[in-house]
Amino acid sequence: MSSLAQLKKELAGALRAAGIESLESQREAELIFEHVTGLTPAQQVLKANDPIDDEQWRVIRSILRRRAQRVPLQYCLGSADFMGLKLAVCPGVFIPRTDTESLVEVALELTAGLPAPHLAEIGCGSGAITIALLKRLADARLTAIDISPAAVAATRQNALAHKVFERMTLVHGPWISCLPDNLDAIVSNPPYIPRSQAGSLDREVGEHEPPEALFGEDDDGLGFYRKLSTIAPGHLKGGGFVVLEVGDGQAEQVRSIFRDKGWQRISTHADVNGLLRVVSAVAPDSSFSKSKKLLE
Hints:
Structural class: alpha/beta
Number of domains: 2
Strand order of the largest sheet: 5-4-3-6-7-9-8
Strand content: 15-25%
Number of strands: 9
Largest sheet: 7 strands, mixed
Number of helices: 13
Distance between the termini: 70 Å
Helix content: 40-55%
């Protein structure tokens, strides 16, 4: 049998040959070995000379075959990490990103001090945002909405695994007809990529992640924000707010959309890379009936 170190080096080389960058290939090799052997990267160093049995190597080769086709590593492993949570993901479910952790942090800051807040997430995907919020807001309730059956199933699975499902209402359907009333906040990482940019996406994203979670409405991809800026006031309490992820370079456009609809205290927030990727805003004074009238 070959040693762990030898096979990990071989795996990293195969990943590089598939077009994955050198540093990333090394990191992915560690994650794949951790998934198969249960050994953390530090333990892999300590056990570098230990053998890998045939069955483990068979599983590793199976993962490699999929990864060489540029299937996202998270789909190959069946999980993704988000704010210290391990979440199940599968094809058809949008993969949570570290960038989105900034959205959760902003929502937590704005929710601080609210008694038993009721929130809603539009487009819950794997449940990453919903679960991260519920884990940190012990008295909160949250309605999670998604149009994708696969996303709803993944959110249910992850919420049960992390023991927050009892404080959720999980809804399968279009958000416009499913959004509850009397909310303290609405959070969302919506689709915002213009379809004209589809050809520029990495293969892992463009060929494998669900297009309905990627591409926004209207030529500029910002159709969701236009609809939400009109509809949301009728579903929020006085002082209720939204926290939204936006694409790189879209923050000012989204600010303008909400400013034009009378929203207040509109702010932009940087992600872990220092890019303005989150917009928050407090709803204008409005009534439920007024918001409904706007849609007629």
